[in-house]
Amino acid sequence: MMSLANNITQTIAATLKKHNLSVTESRKRILQLFLEEKGALAHGDIEKRAGEKFDRVTIYRTLQTFLEKGIIHSIPTADNAIRYALCKDQCSAGHHHDHHIHFICNNCQRTYCLDDVVTPEIKMPKGYQASHVEVVVEGVCKDCK
Amino acid sequence: MMSLANNITQTIAATLKKHNLSVTESRKRILQLFLEEKGALAHGDIEKRAGEKFDRVTIYRTLQTFLEKGIIHSIPTADNAIRYALCKDQCSAGHHHDHHIHFICNNCQRTYCLDDVVTPEIKMPKGYQASHVEVVVEGVCKDCK
DNA sequence: GTAACTGCAAAATATTTGCATCCTT
DNA sequence: AAGGATGCAAATATTTTGCAGTTAC
Description:
Helix content of chain A: 25-40%
Oligomer: homodimer
Mean pLDDT of chain A: 88
């Protein structure tokens, strides 16, 4: 019987292959961090959690690659620390379909993708043509309340 | 009869005084840039438009001060270049009431505050308590269409 | 006159690039 | 074997801090 650990390992490799990426140690490790975290991670978070194992530069390049391939998406925040989170399957390279909102907890600082909350329709003023709507909600998360 | 230029100069000085800030050259100049621009400015934009006149450090500090006093508010974007825009009068130090949405034009890259578009109500999942909602819309602005 | 603001220098931090080496396929 | 990925060194860019001189009030 396949162990859970093996299962995750397979998922990770499959995800990378699906996006035409070679399966390397750093990519596996960083992808695993995202799977473990569920929430969003900033570059700095990854550095801390990955230990001394990887070069900073590799993290930059890996995040960039994941972004381009649509494996992760970025969440802009007011503190100039971009966070990244896993995309759902329907995301594809260069074209994200993540119509969910993001939530940042002011207490624990974690960033969540609230997949069940769809971004609302926004009625734009005459002349403005919207192509993408990003909603970031701040407050207190369910764990901190 | 009072000239328009004088009028603007007075507005700038009045704004600074209202927030208990001394009226200095750099503050006047940076505030003027925001008034001229209408849209949002990133640190880099201010540096370019101010000419060689001010030290980078002064711009950092002035923006920080304006933020704290509620003269400007920040708009997070995906490219890690925070933009700032003037607050409406009802903003006060540390407590922003800017319930409008922001619009970034993918063509001219300008950032607008759409003061007439109120941020929608978001129905949060059980347990999450929202305190602030930030909406950033991307697309093509009225001038670029 | 005094407190606050600015410019300069320098430190600390963050990001990008080039290249030789190593790993995946 | 070949192309791509990584690590290291170094170049750039960004942001912060300390301090002495200057300015606003």
